[in-house]
Amino acid sequence: xxxxxxxxxxxxxxxxxxxxxxxxxxxxxxxxxxxxxxxxxxxxxxxxxxxxxxxxxxxxxxxxxxxxxxxxxxxxxxxxxxxxxxxxxxxxxxxxxxxxxxxxxxxxxxxxxxxxxxxxxxxxxxxxxxxxxxxxxxxxxxxxxxxxxxxxxxxxxxxxxxxxxxxxxx
Length: 170
Fold this sequence. Notes:
This protein is of the alpha+beta class. It has helices spanning about 1-15, 95-105, 115-120; strands at about 35-45, 50-60, 65-70, 75-80, 85-90, 90-95, 130-140, 140-150, 155-170.
C-alpha cells in the first residue's frame, strides 16, 4: 500500500510538469514620464571578461544622474549629464558618456535609450543594439521589465540588466 501511494504521488508530480503556462506580456505605458528613477544591477560580458555593477539612474527629461557601484558596494562613481556637459565625480569631462565609458570600462551602454525600454517595452532602440526583455514585474501596479538583455551588433558586448525598482518622480 505504501508503494502504491508513492507511485500515485510520483505520477501526480509528473503530470504537474506537463502543464503549460504561458507567460503574460504586460502592456507598456505609452508615455515616458518627465522625471523617473530606476535602480538595479548589470552584468556585462566583453572579450571573455565579466563585470558586475550596481546602478541608480535619476532622469529629468534629457538630463540624468547615474551612480555606478562596484560589487559589495566597494567603490562608487557618480556621472551627471545635462545640456552644459558631463561630470564624473564632480569633475568636468571633455568627452561624451559613450567615450568615457569605453575609456573607463572598455564597454558602453546607451543610457539615453533606457527610458523607452522601461516605459514602452521597446525592443528596437537603434541600429547598434539588439534588445530582448525576458521577464516582467509589477511595481506599484505598473508593468516594467525585470530582465533586459542587450547585445551589441558590431562589438562583442553583452549586457544583462536586472531592474530592481522603477519610480515615476513628481
